[in-house]
Each structure stands twice: as structure tokens, then as C-alpha cells.
């Protein structure tokens, strides 16, 4: 987490259900690194059986009194896999979005792309559409052609 602000301020970190997790202090001279942990049950990973289903305790919501930036960097302990996610902040509070991914063949030896959606209000209906014909989705642990 980083900010252009010279005066330090607190960033509150909550999980997707709103449960308080931590508070950190950030300024332009004091960026913060916050560990997501090293287990598969972290705030940003779900088990295959929970894919495409609403979950309450996943995702992170960060808030502060001033503008700040968040960039998530993930890497596996094997050193062979990594991911990077830049957060959109208030600009992500919209109703229509587009995603783009590199093409991965169906026989990609378990390699894949993903998109995460975090609704900010209860009872929100999320619709994903306009997939290419050969896309395969993992819904609750079952591979399903679109």
C-alpha cells in the first residue's frame, strides 16, 4: 500500500463480510507491506467447490481517509507461479465491466485465468456474459463448457 500523502494516516483492512482484520499506517515516505498468509484458505483464495458461489468471508476491503494505492503480488512457494493485481478503488464501484486474458488452450496442464467479483451490497445479482464459445468454466468444482 502506498500514497502520495505526506501526512501518515490509517488504512483499515476488513474481509469481504466486513470483519476487521488489521489497521496499518501509511504515508508517501512509509509504504506498507501486509502479508496475506501462506495457506490456501487465505482471504483471496477459495476452494474449487466454492467457485461461482457467493462466499461471505473472502476478499478484502481497504479504506482510509485519504487516497492510497494497493497492488497485490502473489507468488507460490515453488517459485513457478505468480500473479499481480492492481486495485481500482472507487472507480471499481460500477455496474458493467470488461475483462481480458491471454488465451490458454483447454489442455494447459491446470494453468488458467480467473476473475474475482466482490459485491458491495447484499443480494446483488452478478451476471457474467459474452464468453468465447470454447471457454470452460469451473463452477463449484465441475468444469462446464459455456
Question: How does this structure look, described?
Answer:
The chain has 146 residues and is mainly beta. It contains no helices and seven strands. It has strands spanning 9-15, 20-26, 60-64, 71-75, 82-86, 136-139, 142-145. The strands form three sheets. A three-stranded antiparallel beta sheet has the order 2-1-3, with no helix packed on it. A two-stranded antiparallel ribbon has the order 4-5. Strands 6-7 form a two-stranded antiparallel sheet. The chain is globular.
Comma- or semicolon-separated keywords:
25% strand, three-stranded antiparallel sheet, 0% helix, 146 residues, mainly beta, two-stranded antiparallel ribbon
- What fraction of residues sit in β-strands? 25-35%
Label the structural class: mainly beta
Q: Please count the helical segments.
A: 0
Gyration radius from CA atoms, angstroms: 17 Å
Overall geometric form: globular
End-to-end separation: 37 Å
Helix content: under 10%
Q: What does the largest sheet look like?
A: 3 strands, antiparallel
Number of strands: 7
List unreliable stretches of 5+ residues. Answer: none
Q: Order of strands side by side in the largest beta sheet?
A: 2-1-3
Query: Can you give the mean pLDDT?
Result: 80
- Give the ordered list of helices and strands: EEEEEEE
Please give a quick description of this structure.
This protein has 146 residues and is mainly beta. Helix content is 0%, strand content 25%.
SSE layout and pairing:
Layout: E1 9-15, E2 20-26, E3 60-64, E4 71-75, E5 82-86, E6 136-139, E7 142-145
Antiparallel strand pairs: 1-2, 1-3, 4-5, 6-7
Amino acid at each position: 500500500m502506498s500514497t502520495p500523502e505526506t501526512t501518515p494516516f490509517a488504512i483499515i483492512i476488513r474481509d469481504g463480510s466486513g470483519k476487521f482484520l488489521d489497521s496499518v499506517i501509511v504515508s508517501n515516505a512509509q509504504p506498507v507491506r501486509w502479508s496475506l498468509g501462506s495457506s490456501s484458505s487465505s482471504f483471496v483464495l477459495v476452494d474449487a467447490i466454492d467457485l461461482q458461489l457467493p462466499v461471505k468471508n473472502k476478499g478484502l476491503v481497504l479504506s482510509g481517509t485519504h487516497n492510497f494505492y494497493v497492488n497485490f503480488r502473489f507468488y507460490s512457494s515453488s517459485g513457478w507461479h505468480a500473479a499481480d493485481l492492481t486495485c481500482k478503488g472507487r472507480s471499481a464501484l460500477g455496474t458493467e465491466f470488461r475483462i481480458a486474458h491471454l488465451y490458454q488452450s483447454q489442455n494447459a496442464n491446470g494453468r488458467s485465468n480467473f476473475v474475482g467479483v466482490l459485491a458491495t451490497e447484499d443480494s446483488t445479482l452478478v451476471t457474467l456474459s459474452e464468453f468465447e464459445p470454447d471457454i470452460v468454466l469451473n463452477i463449484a468444482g465441475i468444469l462446464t463448457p459455456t
